[in-house]
Each structure stands twice: as structure tokens, then as C-alpha cells.
């Protein structure tokens, strides 16, 4: 089934070329179906890339999904045009009185800062509090996962000695958990971060469950026991080329980032990396949408 997005959204053409089923608002309005209403708080600097990455997997399920994008009013984007934001994004004040079946809070390149030093932290805290009563389930990604752990559960992030950067193996710790239904016992996922969270603190928290972990990359998937908050510290939404683009960008800026681990064939940056985590990316998003959103949300619940 399709995702419902604005007809003019740039991601629409890209997704259609990839044979992802998308439906513009006019066509969707003619169907007698109540789509799932998903709000995406996009904190990534390259917002159009993040939009396409997320929509690619949200559109790969049997469920019809209506997408709304949210931006921070307390932060001025330097890398996305004002016209794009004004056309496709809402502020929190515009959605405060609405309810949503699901929400995604993305990562953000601010992990070098203490949470309180992020210029939109107060607004983000208000939004995260709001999700408890206005969203059935929220999926938090990378820094968004660390922010949720800190805000909702008091578990802080910790700096790493070097960037966790590459494709890592992960073990499924709770195979009966709905979030990892269909997963292999060991699966690959990308990471790109300078901070981490403690597995022991998560295991010892009465409201949390650690779902998947990597020997080298640490905590990856975890969930609140009520399913309200799902957290992924890596980036299953990344394409095969995303880490390559980050690596080349860092070096262009004079940042001596090491070659992403287990990424380039034969560790050679001149060779094309292969997409080896796509199937588990699809499973993660479809499991979240089905078991934590669709199966849990009431029919009459949902924002416009």
C-alpha cells in the first residue's frame, strides 16, 4: 500500500523511480481508507535526503500511511531552503492539538553538545512530553534515541574514544519481541556517531528492554516495555552510499575520519559499497508500523 505525501515533494519522483508505491493527497482522498497518520520530526541538516530515506521504508508495507513533517521553530536551518520548509513542514504549534498514530524523531549532528546546550532542547523536551498523550508509538533514531533515553528515562550518553563508523554485526537478544520478527539471529546495520549509551543501565531499567546489541558498536535496538518508545542508535534507513558521502564530506572539511569499518569491499574507498542491510531495514519499519502503531492505535484516533 502507498504512502500519502504532497504531490510536489521532491522525494516523490525519486521514490517512484525506485518503484516505491506513493500516492498524492488528491488520489488518496478518493479512497475509503483511514490511513495511518505518521509525523516525522526531521532534525537532520540535509532534510530532503532524510525524507527520501525514511519514506522509502514507510512506503514498503501493506499499510496506507499519511506523512506530515515537523521542524523546530527554535532553530534556523542553514542547509534546507526556507521555501521547502514553509511548503512541506509544520511547527509544533500547528500540530499541538492533533493526535498521530506514530512519530519518528531523527538523529542530529549535535551529539558533541550536552543536551541542555542544544539550541532547541527545550522545545524538543516539550514535544517528547507531548508524544506520551498524542502519539501511539514513537521511533527515535541515533541522537534522537539518545535524547529520548535521557529525557524519558534519565540515561545519559557517553563520549567514545573514536567515531563509531561503519557496518557492524548485531545479535538479536529477544527473538520473541515483535520489533525483530523475521530478523536473522545476526544482522548488519550502519552506525555513525561519537557517543554511546550503557547497556547495563538499559538492562537495569524496569521500563526498558534491550532488543539487539553489537559486540563492537554496542547498544542498537531497545524499546519501552509498553511500546510507546522504540529506539535505534544506528541508521538502518541509510542507503549504500550514505557512509561514503559522510566519509568524503569529513575529509573535505579536514576531519581525519577513519575509513568506515566493514563497509568498502577490501577496505578500498575506490570500490562501490554494497547495500547489505536493506532487508532488515524493511523489517524494522514494517514491524514498527504494524505491531506498535497499526495494531495498537484506535480507529478514531489520528491527526489531520
Automatic annotation (TrEMBL):
GO molecular function: homoserine O-succinyltransferase activity
InterPro entries: Class_I_gatase-like, HST_MetA, MetA_family
Broad class of where this protein is predominantly found: cytoplasm
Pfam family, one: HTS
Claim: Acyltransferase is one of the keywords in the record: yes
Keywords: Acyltransferase, Amino-acid biosynthesis, Cytoplasm, Methionine biosynthesis, Transferase
Site (Important for substrate specificity): 192
Annotated catalytic residues: 142 (acyl-thioester intermediate), 235 (proton acceptor), 237
Function: Transfers an acetyl group from acetyl-CoA to L-homoserine, forming acetyl-L-homoserine.
Name listed for the protein in its UniProt record: Homoserine O-acetyltransferase
Name of the gene this protein is made from: metA
